[in-house]
Specification:
Layout lengths: L2 E6 L4 H12 L6 E7 L4 E7 L2 H10 L6 E7 L14 E2 L5 E6 L5 H10 L11 H10 L4 H9 L6 E7 L6 E6 L4 E4 L4 E4 L11 E4 L4 E5 L4 E5 L10 E2 L15 H7 L1 H9 L3 E2 L4 E2 L8 H5 L3 E6 L1 H18 L3 E5 H4 L10 E7 L5 H12 L3 E6 L5 H5 L2 E4 L12 H19 L5 H22 L2 H11 L4 E6 L3 H16 L2 E6 L16 E5 L6 H13 L3 E6 L12 E4 L8 H19 L18
Parallel strand pairs: 17-18, 17-19, 19-20, 20-21, 22-23, 22-24, 24-25, 25-26
Antiparallel strand pairs: 1-4, 1-10, 2-3, 2-4, 5-6, 6-7, 7-8, 8-12, 9-10, 9-11, 11-14, 12-13, 15-16
Helix pairs in contact: 3-4, 4-5, 7-13, 7-14, 9-13, 9-16, 13-14, 14-18, 15-18, 16-18
This protein binds 5-amino-5-deoxy-1-O-phosphono-D-mannitol.
Amino acid sequence: MCGIVGYIGEKQATTLLVDGLKRLEYRGYDSAGVSLMNGNGLETRKAKGKIAMLEQAIASDPIKGKIGIAHTRWATHGPPNECNAHPHHDCKGKISVVHNGIIENYGPLRAMLQKTGHVFVSETDTEVLAHLIEAAFDGNLEDAVVDALALVEGTYGIAVLSADDPDKIVAARKGSPLLIGIGEGENYVASDVAAILAHTREVVYLDDGEMAVLTRDGYSVCDLYQQTVKKGVSRIDWDLDQIEKGGFDHFMLKEIMEQPQTITNTMRGRLVTEEGFSKLGGLNLSMEELQNLDQIIITACGTSWHSALIGELMIEEHARIRCEVEYASEFRYRNPIVTDKTLCVVISQSGETADTLAAMREAKRRGARTLGLVNQVGSTIAREDDGGIYLHAGPEIGVASTKAFTSQVIALALLTLKLGRLRNMSVVQGRDIAQAMEALPAQIQSILDRASEVETIAEAFSDATNFLYLGRGYNFPVALEGALKLKEISYIHAEGYPAAEMKHGPIALIDADMPVVFIAPHDSVFEKVVSNVQEVKARGGRVIAITSREEPSLAGKIDYEFRIPETIDMLNPVLAAIPLQLLAYYIAAKRGLNVDQPRNLAKSVTVE
Ligand code: M6R
């Protein structure tokens, strides 16, 4: 959620660190700060608000240095203000700490430190780390960090500087992502590769319980008993332009428009159309294990949870394996039935969502095999799962997930093909699915080419205060996703419902001020949806319908229509989601909102 970047080398670090923060702004963004070693000691600047405010603070009171750490904050303990912004310091201002995560026992630690004379200035949990390190410091920073972390319960990704042990950055991780960027005569630490991609592509991912010491000329990694850990170096193959807007007003619009390509990337080399089959090299499950599965549990949060619901329908219909979908945040706190024949599919764009990660660990602990459907290469879920299907959708920067959603549905379709063809699915059925998948990129493009039609609809509804999204079968999760997209970026209240459930309560809300979006392509439940449209129309509701052909039964019953191409039922969500993404985008943009960084939200939710 928050972002960390640190640098040690021969360059002036201020601009480099601030630029790194800008690339992390999408993760969390209510305040920011930077600390530098200026040759005499530590100097810090902080500001509430966007990175631009921090830049102003630095411009009016410049700082210089070649070693530094910086942070963007998403408030957990204490409101967003300059004082609570990171970095945090010890009493003497000789230690500087940036931290992602939550120190759960910060209350008792703070009380203990206060009793021994430590003076706190912020309301944050993080500040206890600076004071703990101060209390343990005896000339060597890494020793003090190890001693301090031994007292800490909770999660952390930290980077620490000390004016009394000045030529190093110490970083440590438990539960919050952190990586080292390797340069020549310089090194970096960051919570996200985007922060340092302009400078290096060689990275080392830290694992939980590891600490790194960075100097100009090298780095070392050890565990928290200071035993050396040998780490592999990974190479990042993204390009910088993938994390830039490329001429679009917002990342969200760019990412919506990329979908013909991103789903192609998800399918590339995996779809064997002629044989109606999929090749998934990373499953790490034998043919026999796949055939013997007795159930699949899919767990995820938010948009990824919506794609999980679509996966459940696909897998049960076409692969005939019992499948349950669980909110990751609920799964870990109940007593689910998991056997050694359970496959737990874990879906996460970021691969860092705390609840999803914890659910995966719980499923593993109970004996399930885990399979990660993850976009972010090298993320924690991707490294801890037993097998995986990378989405290959490229970096998703907009907080509202768009291209990751369609790639998740494609990855689930590939998995369905694989599992189905090992069971009852005939080659003909498999080929039909594969051919329909192959047609999707061009079909999505044909929708995107008509984006202005959605913009016109958005114009008519940008002042609405409530929305209802209704769909049935495969399109019920699409209704949920459409409503989530709208509410998170436009702040308009929106609900998704199974269309037929409407008459059990929400129908009371229908009047001329309630736009109702029906996801009604011509599928096996279309006629049923028509009855629901009639029920809304009879009560004066305004209907926006996503259809796939001219429907005489809808004549006179819909106010606005957007046509999508026809496909097989299980793939309708991929096409139907696109106009809903555009609708949310255009409404939010017309309301003048910060589409890519909606209030209160962060791209990657790394706290429970
Ligand atoms: O990175 P993940 O897929 O695990 O993230 C899960 C949710 O936090 C995420 O999908 C969230 O709901 C998005 N903001 C939705 O657009």
